[in-house]
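Pipeline run #58 for the internal structure catalog. This entry was flagged by the ingest filter as a single-chain record with no existing model, so it goes straight to prediction. Upstream metadata was stripped on purpose; only the residue string is passed forward. Reviewer on rotation: M.T. Logging verbosity set to normal.
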Amino acid sequence: MAKKQVKNKKPSQVWKKYTINNEKLERKMTCPKCGNSYFLAMHKNRITCGKCAYTEFS
């Protein structure tokens, strides 16, 4: 049998979703409906949640 091809995956880079203020970690943008455990995705003209499809247009 032939070997499966391994696709090149990007790392998740979750560390970019946090900021440090006065020695405290803060999350950048979280979903107001789902809670603090879900981040909002930044798109060209909108911000969306992947779970509940909450959207803010800019």
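catalog note: The chain has a mean pLDDT of 89.
catalog note: The two ends are 51 Å apart (CA to CA).
status: ready for reviewer M.T.
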